[in-house]
Each structure stands twice: as structure tokens, then as C-alpha cells.
Structure to design on (584 residues):
């Protein structure tokens, strides 16, 4: 089976006033893999997520998903095209229950139109029933089935992370963008989340693009990674070889920062700066 | 006494529909609409114009009022649906005042109709079929009761649909609904149309009940009366906002009674005091029962196999 490129990001740029947040980020995600996006704080990872999902529009560069440019689409259009994201801090509506949050996720629900809800009541009922079953199954996967009628307000931070993961799965997209899926989650649950994502990948349920700071998790989870520094991709490859590179280490230690943002580290051998 | 109660409950029914309509917009969708009275005003004017000037029957007037106010709701939301909540609130207040000032300065079908003269002699449906005003009062109360029941069951059904669920989701921010493919802007526009239409229905019922309308009936203060009902009763709870309508309207109309019993306060002072009482009541509710007398109910789906998935 020839690997199929699902998402191609090429030379993405985004400036906020005087800050060049993203400056040339480029990578390719293949269908069926777990792709990691790592980098020090402020390196533009979340901004890249926002650019990919239409929450921000890039100044330049291209985003191609399934051979179609999705640059310039509005966020809900990106979601409908098949990309679903989670947020670093849970933004789920807290005055709704876990189950209501889950049932929100499926795309193209008949009952989301007023007239269709009125004329096609049997169909709406059937969809709701099927969605409810699936939501229970997915909540079971993240071990939250017993909490389905709790308000999100009463959930812990870690539980909210699990909910957004389950919700993303419920939406059933081809590509799921996870923004720090294990930050603030207790260690035992982290293993569960890693196993779950790996299993979903193995079952071919979705492709994942993951931003994560926990390097142990990145090594276990990701098939390939890209390292962002100051908004540019400075290295790409398997986690082992990429994380061993000296320029990557330097990016994390921040040694070259004082040299400005000329991306010297990318082209020159180690040891030139400082 | 009984006539007064029939009058009171007719008014409560009309304002109850208005409270239900604001509840769809604020209670469920989180839209801080500070110009809600505009739908009531448009409904009242459109129905009066259709019936008096165009000679249409009562039902056509009411239907036209409902449609027109709904369309205006959508129109209001189209340019503003992307605004932040506080700016949105200001824009709704402005929209309502624009419409009121338009009617204040526009004569309709003659020099003494419309503008500040208002519209008088608005026909009451089937008035001639009833001998006494008291009997007619009961009849009109029945009309309002039917409209209220219809509105109540409609909003209860609507907010239980997947559409209603999506409305509730955008109430707390656009990010998650957008990431899940929900068009937040379109949902807001549709919530404004539904709420506007119901508000228009209430306005039409008011116009034909009162038989007279004028621009000064629709001052911003009236919007805050509707808000008081929703906040007091419990935003997000249909029954709650109806309880709010009963309490607020009962207080608002209490002076007619109390004036006879509390002779030591002159009626003018008493009329002002009732607004102070409503204000204190709202302050108390916001401080000690921020979710209102009847908080929003939680929808329970239960454990596996226990629910039918409605």
C-alpha cells in the first residue's frame, strides 16, 4: 500500500504585529500515521494548529488536505472537510453534560436544521439513538461512561482532556489535531491515552497530528515528528533520530536565540553559534 | 376583581411569550439582546397596519407580525453575528431604538395615525360576538392562552432537538462548536429569527388586546422588564421564565390594588416604588440565586440501555 499524503503544509507564514509567529513551517502528514509537532514554548505550534483549522488565516504558504487547498476556509468548513482539533485548555461548554458534549460532535446531523428537525422526526430519533450508542462506546474507551450525565463544570482538567479526545473521535474526522493531549493528565491515564491513540491508529480510524511537550509520550506515540523553532521547521524525521540532533537540542536549550531569528542553525553545522 | 385577574393573566400570557422568546436567545444561545422589545413593537405595528390599513383579518395580521419580526431578527443578526458579546448587546439596543424612533416620526395612512399619536382603534377579533367587555376578556384570554401554550411547546421541542443542543454549545463560546463543524454565525442568526418571531407574535396579541399602541410603549425600559422575568425565573428554563413573567407582571400591576389599601402612600410614589421592588428582587436573585428561581434542568441520558435516545 503506497503511503498517501493526507496533509501538506508548505512554507506557512503568520505575523502578529511585530512578532513573526510562524515563519516557513512545512511538513507532510501521511494517512494512518501519528505525526508529532514539537518545539519550545512560543515556537508557533499552536499558531500552526490555528492556521490549519481556519481559526487564523496565514499571511502566505499553502495548506493542502486530500489534494484540496483548505487555506482560507472558515473553521467550521475545515471541520466539515474532515479535520477536527482539540484545544490546549479545554473550552468545552461547561453548562452542558458530558453526553451533550459528545452528541454535539457528529457531523451533518439532520436535527440541526429547524425544518428538518420538524419534518424528519423519525430520522432525527434514529440518528440520536445511534449517536448515543457510539458516544457511550467512546466514553467507555476513555473510561468516562459513568460520568455521562455530569456537567462538564464538575470535571477535572484531565477528564476534560479525555472528553475532548472522545469528542474529536465522535466527530469522526480523517485527521485529528491534538493540542497537548496529556498535559495535566495523571501518569496512569497518560498511558491509557497513548495506548488508545496507538490503537485507533492501528485500527485505521484516524490520522493524528499531535502537539506535545512530554518527550516520553512523543517517542512512544509518534511515527514521525517535525521540530518547530521560531515558527520554522528545523528538523523532521523519526523521533529517535530527530530528537538526537544537536540543532534540535540547541533549539530547546535556546542557545542560538541571541543570534536573532535568521535560522542559521538550520543550515550550519553545530558549534558555529556562541 | 375577577375582571382584573382576567386582564392580569392575559397580560402575563402575552409577556410570557415574550419571555420565552428572550429565553431562546439569551437562555439558550447566550445572546445578550438589549433591544428585545423591538420584536414586540414590530409585531404590534405590523399587525395593526395589516388589519387597519390593509383591511386584513386578525389572523393574517398576527401571522404577518410573526414573520416580519422574525425576519427583522435575522436582519439584525446578519451584520452583527460576529461581534463580541458586549458590542453585540450595544448593537441590539441601537437597533431597537432606531425602529422606535422611525415609528415615532412616521405617520401612517393619515396625519393623525402613527408618529407620536400611535395607532388607536385597533380592532379586536370577534368583539361584536360578545355582549359584555367581561365576557370578551375571557375570550381574548383564551386566545392568548392558546398562543402561549403553542409557544411553550414549540420552544420546549426546539431546544430539545440537535439544533437546540448546538445553540447551547455556542452559548459558552464559538471555538468548540466551530471545531466540530457547527456554523456559529448561522446558528445565531436562526436563534434571532425564532426569538424575533415569537416576540412579534406577543406584540400582535398585545396590539389587539390593548386596541391602542404608541411608540412610548416600547421604551428600552420594557426590554429590561423582559430581562427581569428571564433572570428571576431562571435563564434556560422555559417554565422558570413563565414563573418570572407571573411574578414581575403581578408586581408591576399591583398598584391598582395596593393604592386602595395603603392610603398613606400616594399612588404616584407607589407606582415608582414597584420598580424599586423589582430592582431589589433582581439584585437579590442575582446575589443569592444566580441561576434563578428555577435553574436550567439537566438533560439526563442515563446509563446504557436505560434511555431510548430521544
Amino acid at each position: 500500500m503506497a503511503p498517501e499524503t493526507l496533509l501538506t503544509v508548505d512554507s506557512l507564514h503568520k505575523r502578529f504585529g511585530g512578532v513573526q509567529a510562524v515563519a516557513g513551517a512545512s511538513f507532510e502528514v501521511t494517512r494512518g500515521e501519528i505525526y508529532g509537532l514539537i518545539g519550545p514554548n512560543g515556537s508557533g505550534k499552536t499558531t500552526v494548529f490555528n492556521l490549519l483549522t481556519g481559526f487564523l488565516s496565514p499571511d502566505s504558504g499553502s495548506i493542502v488536505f486530500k489534494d484540496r487547498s483548505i487555506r482560507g476556509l472558515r473553521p467550521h468548513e475545515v471541520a466539515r472537510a474532515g479535520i477536527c482539533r482539540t484545544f490546549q485548555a479545554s473550552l468545552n461548554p461547561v453548562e452542558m453534560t458530558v453526553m451533550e458534549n459528545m452528541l454535539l460532535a457528529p457531523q451533518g446531523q439532520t436535527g440541526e436544521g429547524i425544518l428538518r428537525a420538524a419534518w424528519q422526526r423519525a430520522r432525527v430519533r434514529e440518528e440520536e439513538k445511534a449517536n448515543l450508542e457510539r458516544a457511550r462506546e467512546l466514553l467507555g474507551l476513555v473510561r468516562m461512561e459513568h460520568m455521562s450525565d455530569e456537567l462538564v463544570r464538575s470535571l477535572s482538567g484531565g477528564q476534560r482532556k479525555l472528553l475532548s479526545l472522545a469528542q474529536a473521535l465522535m466527530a469522526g474526522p480523517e485527521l485529528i489535531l491534538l493540542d497537548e493531549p496529556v498535559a495535566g493528565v495523571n501518569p496512569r491515564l497518560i498511558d491509557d491515552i497513548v495506548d488508545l491513540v496507538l490503537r485507533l491508529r492501528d485500527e485505521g480510524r484516524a490520522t493524528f497530528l499531535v502537539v506535545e511537550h512530554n518527550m516520553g509520550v512523543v517517542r512512544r506515540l509518534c511515527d514521525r515528528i517535525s521540530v518547530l523553532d521560531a515558527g520554522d521547521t528545523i528538523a523532521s524525521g523519526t523521533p529517535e533520530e530527530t530528537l538526537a540532533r544537536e540543532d534540535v537540542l540547541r533549539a530547546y536549550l535556546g542557545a542560538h536565540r541571541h543570534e536573532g531569528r535568521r535560522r542559521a542553525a538550520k543550515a550550519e553545522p553545530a558549534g558555529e553559534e556562541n | 376583581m375577577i375582571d382584573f385577574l382576567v386582564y392580569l393573566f392575559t397580560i402575563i400570557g402575552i409577556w410570557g411569550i415574550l419571555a420565552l422568546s428572550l429565553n431562546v436567545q439569551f437562555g439558550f444561545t447566550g445572546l445578550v439582546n438589549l433591544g428585545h422589545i423591538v420584536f414586540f413593537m414590530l409585531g404590534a405595528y405590523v399587525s395593526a397596519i395589516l388589519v387597519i390599513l390593509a383591511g386584513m383579518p386578525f389572523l393574517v395580521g398576527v401571522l404577518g407580525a410573526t414573520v416580519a419580526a422574525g425576519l427583522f431578527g435575522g436582519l439584525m443578526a446578519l451584520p452583527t453575528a460576529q461581534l463580541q458579546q458586549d458590542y453585540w448587546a450595544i448593537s441590539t439596543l441601537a437597533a431597537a431604538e432606531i425602529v422606535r424612533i422611525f415609528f415615532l416620526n412616521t405617520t401612517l395612512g393619515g396625519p393623525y395615525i402613527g408618529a407620536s399619536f400611535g395607532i388607536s382603534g385597533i380592532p379586536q377579533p370577534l368583539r361584536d360576538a360578545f355582549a359584555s367587555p367581561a365576557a370578551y376578556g375571557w375570550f381574548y384570554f383564551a386566545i392568548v392562552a392558546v398562543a402561549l401554550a403553542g409557544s411553550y411547546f414549540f420552544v420546549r421541542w426546539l431546544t430539545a432537538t440537535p439544533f437546540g443542543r448546538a445553540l447551547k454549545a455556542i452559548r459558552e463560546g464559538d471555538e468548540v462548536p466551530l471545531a466540530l463543524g457547527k456554523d456559529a454565525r448561522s446558528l445565531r442568526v436562526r436563534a434571532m429569527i425564532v426569538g424575533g418571531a415569537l416576540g412579534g407574535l406577543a406584540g400582535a396579541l398585545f396590539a389587539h388586546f390593548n386596541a391602542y399602541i404608541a411608540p412610548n410603549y416600547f421604551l428600552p425600559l420594557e426590554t429590561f422588564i423582559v430581562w427581569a422575568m428571564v433572570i428571576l425565573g431562571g435563564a434556560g428554563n422555559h417554565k422558570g421564565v413563565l414563573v418570572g413573567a407571573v411574578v414581575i407582571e403581578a408586581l408591576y400591576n399591583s398598584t391598582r390594588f395596593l393604592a386602595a389599601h395603603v392610603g398613606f402612600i400616594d399612588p404616584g410614589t407607589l407606582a415608582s416604588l414597584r420598580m424599586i421592588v423589582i430592582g431589589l428582587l433582581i439584585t437579590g436573585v442575582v446575589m443569592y440565586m444566580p441561576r434563578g428561581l428555577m435553574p436550567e434542568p439537566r438533560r439526563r441520558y442515563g446509563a446504557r440501555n436505560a434511555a431510548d435516545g430521544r
The longest strand of chain B covers residues 119-120.
